[in-house]
Amino acid sequence: MNGGWYVYGVADGDREIDEPKGGVRLVREGRVAAIVGPVDLCEFDQLDERLNDLAWLEQKARAHEAVLDELVGEGAVVPLRFGAIYRRPDEVVALLRDRGEEFEADLDRVRGRIELGVKGFVDRTALENTLARERVATAAGGGSGRAYLERRRVQREIADEASAILAEAARTAHERLLELSVAGTVSRPHSRELSGRPEEMFLNVAYLVQAKDESLREEVAALGRAYAPLALTFEVTGPWPPYSFVGSASREHAAQ
Amino acid sequence: MSERAYPARAGGGPAPAQLADVLERVLDKGIVIAGDIEIRLLDIELLTVRLRLLVASADKAKEMGIDWWEGDPFLSRGNGDKALEERLRRLEAKAGLEPAKDGGE
Q: Which of A42, A50, A57, A199 to mutate to test the interface with B (most CBs of B within 10 A)?
């Protein structure tokens, strides 16, 4: 075995792990501690091929997430991303020394807080049908070729209107949810293939909120009720380790 | 497991988190693998993952002192033992360990 140390995240220096699994342990240095586990580096060779292997990637990513999930409920954790692997424990110590202040600041920022994901979906056909029905109520119908062209024009207008409604709904939702959170970040919506849903995702955001604060979830439910007539739905995921609010990402947010 | 401070995952009920959500978070920005990696998940135009993997690849790794592939014949492309030794020496010095003097003990 060609051994290495995989760093999952960073916790407070006085943190204990109650029931360590998979050899996970803490490497302490100063006021912070790295959450590390032994890995076989051979599992990570030919990485460019493996990263294209979805089964491999899923297994590794879920294992990473599982370790952090176990720990994040019981104290502050700064999650690192996939693949922070060091050959020797003293290299982990060096990481903690080099970036100790940064990790401490991140720990303070996320302490008592969690990340929630919010996604917005639209059944675009249903939305456009709704918009079309509103028009039919006000416009007279017609026959012949001119009427066909007119219908095409109206279809385009309806599609544009639907897009405008989605942009506005995304903006409104993000504004309202941001007011209930410490910080928020906007990501690109997933394609249908990735989301695995028939609806189109129009909103993909994450928020840092107080751990026991349910107000964001309640607001998402309220948004869902408000936008239901337009065939929009919202979904909350998490709690997640606060991936989106540590490291360089958090400095970007702080600067906003 | 003892009681958790947080409610169970919402949205999916007891179902595991969606892979896309996990990948988006676990891979995003942080990644650290030797350069020139292109990920094609299911040949889908891959959210932000590929982009961020690339952005974060080698430079980010160096910044974090991650270089485990260097000096490994299976993993590296031309980094010899000398570079690794020098790296270790620098880290040991940084960590306050007895630095090996040039020319041996």
A: A57
Res A248: pLDDT: 63
Cα separation, B100 vs A253, whole angstroms: 42
**pLDDT band of A137, cuts 50, 70, 90:** low
Are B30 and A83 within 8 A, CB to CB? Answer: yes
A138 shares a domain with A103: no
Q: Which residue of A has its CA nearest to B38?
A: A48
Task: Look up the domain containing B89 and give its range.
Answer: 67-97
B60 with B21, same domain?
yes
A74 in the same domain as A147: no
Residues A97 and A164 in one domain: no
> Domain range for residue A29?
3-109
Q: Is the pLDDT of residue A18 over 90?
A: no
Q: B19, A61: Cβ pair inside 8 Å?
A: yes
Considering the domain architecture, whether residues A35 and A120 belong to the same structural domain is answered as no
ipTM exceeding the 0.90 mark? no
Pair (A197, A242) in one structural domain: yes
Note whether A128 and A217 are same-domain residues.
yes
Question: Chain A partners of B95 at a C-beta cutoff of 8 Å?
Answer: 90, 93-94, 97
